[in-house]
């Protein structure tokens, strides 16, 4: 019985991984919001921190070494990865675009750009940094997703799809690299006050059939984010993926995450969808 219990515990628990307490950390999108706070905390912990921006203004920002990276440009990703010397101990794939619009009216080139920036670009960068991480035998890779990847919302379908894609590939990657001492986790923010509503790209025909409902959703979305948890609260959750000896596959904060995920397991999909949409005035 004891052997069976031990076997079950091993099956249920995430594997123990080598600790990551120092080394080089890469944080994409480190000029504001989540990325900036994560990068600053890593500096405080003694990591050599390389932050990225599409147009960095300074070589050093509060101890963060800023380098140019445009996730929408594969050549930029290659050049950035080639500039990294030695293994990366922590990779935080955080940069991205927030996009809104009815599926019918989304320009194809905008959708393709979103998937490149929010999904393919991060996969490309991760692939390029992984060989050195494997050779070092340790590391943490954190994908910053969104609770919309688990709870899709009307008029946010493209964004939700990009975050669902990053979640799915992270789950696969997690199993592939754990034997090399590398942990992979997805952090899913819910409503969080980062100011991202000011930078959201919107595609909507003002005189189209979706405009009134779209405006209702956006108004409620902006209000929910303004009342959301602080960025610091989400960053504290993210650091569990770095600090935990047995990092979980998922960490979430905001939008009553524990209640939402528990309800998702218990309620039919249609009911969960109705609850998500009601929260946004739909």
TrEMBL record:
Domain of life: Bacteria
One Pfam family recorded for the sequence: adh_short
Gene Ontology CC annotations of this record: membrane
One GO MF term attached to the UniProt entry: oxidoreductase activity
Alphabetic keyword roster: Oxidoreductase
Family to which this protein belongs: Belongs to the short-chain dehydrogenases/reductases (SDR) family.
PANTHER family attached to this UniProt entry: DEHYDROGENASE/REDUCTASE SDR FAMILY MEMBER 7B, DEHYDROGENASE_REDUCTASE SDR FAMILY MEMBER 7B
Name this protein carries in UniProt: Putative oxidoreductase YbbO
Source taxonomy: Bacteria, Bacillati, Actinomycetota, Actinomycetes, Mycobacteriales
């Amino acid at each position: 019985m004891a052997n069976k219990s031990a076997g079950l515990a091993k099956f249920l628990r995430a594997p123990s991984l080598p600790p990551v307490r120092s080394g080089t950390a890469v944080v994409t999108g480190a000029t504001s919001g989540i990325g900036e706070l994560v990068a600053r905390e890593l500096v405080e912990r003694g990591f050599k921190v390389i932050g990225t921006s599409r147009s960095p203004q300074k070589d050093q920002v509060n101890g963060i070494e800023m380098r140019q990276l445009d996730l929408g440009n594969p050549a930029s990703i290659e050049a950035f990865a080639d500039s990294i010397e030695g293994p990366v101990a922590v990779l935080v794939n955080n940069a991205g675009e927030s996009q809104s619009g009815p599926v019918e009216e989304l320009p194809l080139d905008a959708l393709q750009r979103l998937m490149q920036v929010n999904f393919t670009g991060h996969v490309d960068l991760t692939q390029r940094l992984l060989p050195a991480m494997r050779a070092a035998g340790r590391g943490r890779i954190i994908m910053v997703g969104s609770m919309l990847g688990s709870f899709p919302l009307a008029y946010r379908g493209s964004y939700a799809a990009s975050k669902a894609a990053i979640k799915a590939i992270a789950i696969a990657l997690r199993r592939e690299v754990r034997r090399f001492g590398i942990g992979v986790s997805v952090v899913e923010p819910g409503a969080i006050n980062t100011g991202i509503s000011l930078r959201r790209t919107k595609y909507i025909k003002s005189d189209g059939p979706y405009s009134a409902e779209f405006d209702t959703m956006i108004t409620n979305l902006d209000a929910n984010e303004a009342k959301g948890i602080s960025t610091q609260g989400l960053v504290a959750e993210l650091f569990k993926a770095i600090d935990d000896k047995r990092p979980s596959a998922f960490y979430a904060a905001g939008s009553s995450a524990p209640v939402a995920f528990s309800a998702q397991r218990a309620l039919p999909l249609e009911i969960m969808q109705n609850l998500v949409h009601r929260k946004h005035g739909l």
